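Sanity check. The docking grid for phosphoenolpyruvate depends on where the pocket ends up, so I'm generating a full predicted complex first rather than guessing from homology. Inputs follow.
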Amino acid sequence: MGKYIIAGNWKMNKTPAEAKELIEAIAPLVKDATCDVIVGVPFVDLPVALEATRGTNIGVAAQNCHWEKSGAFTGEISADMLQAMGVGYVILGHSERRTYFGDTDVTVAKRTRAALDAGLTVILCVGEYLEQREQGITSEVVDMQVKVALGGVSREELSRIIIAYEPVWAIGTGRTATDLQANEVCAHIRGTLASLYDDEAAKAVTIQYGGSMNAGNAESLLAQPDVDGGLIGGASLKPADFATIVAAAK
Ligand code: PEP
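Predicted complex below; grid placement will be based on this.
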């Protein structure tokens, strides 16, 4: 399916000095990775992360961006600013942004548009709340998230979209989706992409699973046919665990 990509989401953790130290610990452990490796760091850590990853196989992601290029949006960072720094990726629509900071499918779509226009690659997060899974509407929820975010995204631009399926009930909870649950939704998303674009385009998209993936469960999750990688929160802050996950993505 899509190329394997393991991305760390550091959330609101690590000062610049700590970020440098963490990347310097991770880099030698993942240097022979056969998958792509990305670290998603807080905005203030981006300069040091770009510097510390220079000459390594590690890409750098921001954790959000605004949809306007510039203007009266106090506290916000634009996609163009990230691109100007040399950042290659941005995580958008993370459930913590949707839950705590009011991101909606519509604003995630606007951010996605801005990020693509700036030349960035987007890690687009989708996933259902526990109540939605229990109501049996997981497919409808992720379809809506995917379709709204990708409205207006061309087949060519799809090569700069990575989708992270992250069931909200599994994020930071230690409760992981089963291998089959993860694969089922990732496969469903691929089917939705095929209906929006075509089979070939859908197969080329990397669809990650995220939600308490760790050194112990990564191998079997990543062995699922429609799971092309992982978006890793807690375990991405532990170099050995992150490296074990990266090694399992082959
Ligand atoms: C995440 O932050 O995207 C995530 C999946 O977190 P965790 O791995 O800690 O569940």
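Relevant for the grid: Residues 179-196 form the longest helix (18 residues).
Also worth noting: Residues 9, 11, 166, 171-172, 210-213, 231-235 surround phosphoenolpyruvate (CB under 6 Å).
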